TrEMBL record:
PANTHER family: NICOTINATE-NUCLEOTIDE ADENYLYLTRANSFERASE-RELATED (PTHR39321), PHOSPHOPANTETHEINE ADENYLYLTRANSFERASE (PTHR39321:SF3). It catalyses: nicotinate beta-D-ribonucleotide + ATP + H(+) = deamido-NAD(+) + diphosphate. One of its GO terms (biological process) is NAD+ biosynthetic process. Gene3D superfamilies: HUPs. Residues 9-176 form the Cytidyltransferase-like domain. This is Probable nicotinate-nucleotide adenylyltransferase. The gene is nadD. It comes from Propionispira arboris. It is an enzyme of class 2 (transferase). Catalyzes the reversible adenylation of nicotinate mononucleotide (NaMN) to nicotinic acid adenine dinucleotide (NaAD). HAMAP family: NaMN_adenylyltr.
Length: 204
């Protein structure tokens, strides 16, 4: 019998990817015995459609640079589409590509937990994958409430990561770059070099 593979999925704007994303992804891999974590830069996340977002090509390259030294990380680019990209569509596609002998684990930050019950196709999503939530300070109650909201399904399919999410904000990083301040130690060194080389986040 073929062994079941456990694949983590971490989607995000990654504008830019930072150490908080990487620490959370690796903590989920360690705690849940994941064979691989796939990072996917969103092309057009529904909740950020009205915001200025750096081109997906730049964000994809930064994600590649940030993960190039970790054999357990893989970066998949989303196909350019018109309109919003929904998590359920991404998970369906990955489920089809990886096959039946695969368990999928969606890794999200606690900033998304309150909206989880309202996600497009959420009931089907919880059938297709389990959800790992990285907690931030003060988020434990909200995580428990959402697990309770989904009843037995929540208990079996939604889990809280023991390792807390690092309090790092991509918005704060962009503001630091724009102000000429250092972003050393909050993004990987090669990502910092890329941002400087491409003159990203200097202005909008």
């Amino acid at each position: 019998m073929q062994a079941i593979r456990r694949i983590g999925i971490m989607g995000g704007t990654f504008d830019p990817i930072h150490m908080g994303h990487l620490v959370t992804a690796d903590a989920a891999r360690m705690e849940y015995g994941l064979d691989q974590v796939v990072l996917i830069p969103d092309t057009c996340p529904p909740h950020k459609q009205q915001m200025a977002v750096t081109s997906v090509q730049h964000r994809y390259r930064m994600a590649l640079l940030a993960t190039d030294s970790n054999l357990y990380f893989n970066v998949l680019p989303l196909v350019e589409i018109n309109g919003p990209s929904y998590t359920i569509d991404t998970v369906k596609s990955l489920k089809k590509n990886y096959g039946e002998n695969t368990e999928l684990y969606l890794i999200i930050g606690s900033d998304l937990i309150r909206s989880l019950p309202h996600w497009y196709g959420i009931d089907e999503l919880l059938c297709l994958c389990k959800v790992i939530v990285a907690p931030r300070q003060g988020s434990i109650g909200a995580i428990k409430a959402v697990i309770h909201h989904f009843g037995e399904t929540g208990k079996r399919r939604i889990f809280r990561l023991k390792t807390p999410e690092l309090e790092i904000s991509s918005t704060e990083i962009r503001e630091k770059v724009r102000a000429g301040k250092s972003i050393c130690y909050i993004v990987p060194e090669n990502v910092e070099h890329y941002i400087n080389k491409e003159k990203l986040y200097r202005s909008y």
